[in-house]
Amino acid sequence: MAKAKKVKKDELELINKQQKQMNELLRGLGVLDVQKMNMHTQINGLSAAIETTKKDLEEKYGAVNIDLNTGVLTDIEECENCDNDKKDAK
User: Fold this and answer.
1) Which residues on neighbouring strands pair with residue 73, listed in sequence order?
2) What's the rounded Cα separation, in Å, for the pair 86 and 15?
3) What is the Cα–Cα distance from 76 to 62, expressed in whole angstroms?
4) CA 31 to CA 83: how far, in whole Å?
5) Domain residue spans in the chain?
6) Tens digits of per-residue pLDDT, 10-61?
7) What is the DSSP letter of 63?
8) In the chain, which residue ranges form alpha helices assigned H by DSSP?
9) How far apart, in whole angstroms, are the C-alpha atoms of residue 7 and residue 43?
10) In this structure, are residues 64 and 74 in contact, taking their beta carbons and an 8 Å threshold?
């Protein structure tokens, strides 16, 4: 029976090193993908909480702007040209 051909020892080590690096990168990418999905879930939950807070505050104070640094409330000014501005934007 003929002797099987083999790659050199250093070539085999290089191939195994490269394959190991590829597997580590792919595993890391999978972990990042799961983290990304978890963050999307957290963002969706926080967005819902923000909307609830906005609704609660609007029921309590009316339609106002809130300065996020001072908490000062200011009335939202009606825009007389808002409809025209929307038409002009088209």
Assistant:
1) 66
2) 62
3) 10
4) 48
5) 9-89
6) 999 999 999 999 999 999 999 999 999 999 999 999 999 999 999 999 999 9
7) S
8) 9-61, 82-89
9) 51
10) yes
